[in-house]
Write a structure and sequence with these properties.
This protein has 323 residues and is mostly helical. The chain contains eleven helices and two strands. Helix content is 71%, strand content 2%. It has a two-stranded antiparallel ribbon with strand order 1-2. Strand 1 and strand 2 form a beta hairpin. The protein is globular and about 60 Å long.
Length: 323
Amino acid sequence: GASSSSVAEPCPGFLGQRQISLFAMADLKELGVSAEEAVPPTEEELTKLPSNRRLTEIYFSMTLPIMFLSVATLMLATGVRIFAGTWDWNPATYFLQITEADPMSIKFDVALWIHVISGFMWVLAVCAQMTTAMLFAKWEKLRPVHRFVGTFVGPTSLALMLPMGVLASIFSDRFPKYTVTSKIAFLATIVVNGLQIIVNIAMGIRSARQQDYSTHKEFMFWGLLSSLQPGADRFGMCVVQLMFPSCAVKKLGTFSGSFISVVCLTLLATATSKRAGKLHTSISKWNIAVFIFFCVMFGAGTVLSIVKREPGEGMNCLVDIDG
């Protein structure tokens, strides 16, 4: 039979005939091929047909843990805002009661609320898209739902989430205190991440309209993963902070937590693309290159934080530099 990574798996039918598997039938429906035309295909044709439902299952199962951790961190930050009255990139500091609440403007608060709510909408839209895509073979009526969410709900939530995230960063009390170099590096990571999300989602929608569903799923996988990166970064920061429960890790924790999370995302993305048989594609290559860019940026920030040994920025959690 075909390997687990191939799309149309032959399975024994009645009287020793060869039939098309459920995955392959779902794919053939999407390609507009009838069952009469598809049975029996040659062995060569079987290996060439992409398993669209199988791709969805691979992408969904591999990104589900990242979605869970990102949403959990987002909920933690929202809880801090509700009960402590402030937003922070590293909400663990407030649960450990080791920092004071930062002052914030109304503009910052409103922008971040819109960013967070639209972020929740985006994750729900993604879950709806992946779930309906896996159920097409059984319930054809889910296609209009999938199309509606992909056309309106997903793009609308992204159109709110991305610019509001940039505005919230600029409106924050900390941003004016950054050096020019820090501001450029900070905005560069936000802009590159936003462009990565937009390009992947836009190309994914375009591929779906061209009925190139395999490419559509690949683009959407990368769009989803890149949109989860900021949440994964916050989770990494919280993990680093919990390693030093009596000391605020500040800048060192921001860079090192982000570096650890992006390295993990890069490895996960590479493993997922390989499992889906997509590691060789130009889509995977340029997206992995973008993740490597973030690894370099956050890694450089971590190294500079250690080298500069600035008091009150996290190095004092490792060594006594305040005296």
